[in-house]
Design brief:
mainly alpha; single chain; 434 Repressor (Amino-terminal Domain); about 130 residues; 2 domains
């Protein structure tokens, strides 16, 4: 992921996927359409607070938006439509009890240890 330079094209892809206009995103974020247009044109990058609002409006991982806007180092490059980004964003939004968190962790660990997961991990990438 190229930090900062990639942000306008990433944001355009996100809008295209949702069939949203810049004005629609601005409405959902509570910012001016002109501000979103500046981001799309690459004139400015959103500040960290705007990145959090943007992540919430797009239902994507806030860390990804912060990294793409240059406010955080990316931990792992993920494709814009990578399902892991959506799963991470959902988990971060859920208010879990300690028992629910333990259950989710146990489910993921069991999946990682299953023979099917090993077959998937060993499969060649199709990209």
């Amino acid at each position: 992921m190229s930090v900062g330079d990639d942000f306008p094209s990433w944001l355009k892809r996100q809008l295209h996927r949702r069939e949203w206009s810049a004005a629609e995103l601005a409405r959902r974020m509570g910012v001016s359409p002109a501000r979103v247009s500046e981001w799309l044109a690459g004139k400015y990058l959103p500040n960290p607070a705007s990145c959090l609002r943007l992540a919430d409006a797009l239902n994507v991982d806030a860390d990804e938006v912060l990294a793409r806007a240059g406010h955080r180092e990316p931990t792992e490059p993920l494709a814009p439509d990578d399902s892991r980004s959506r799963i991470i964003a959902l988990v971060k939004r859920v208010q879990m009890t300690p028992q629910q968190a333990d259950g989710l962790e146990a489910m993921l660990m069991a999946w990682l240890e299953s023979p099917i997961a090993a077959e998937i991990d060993d499969a060649p990438d199709e990209t």
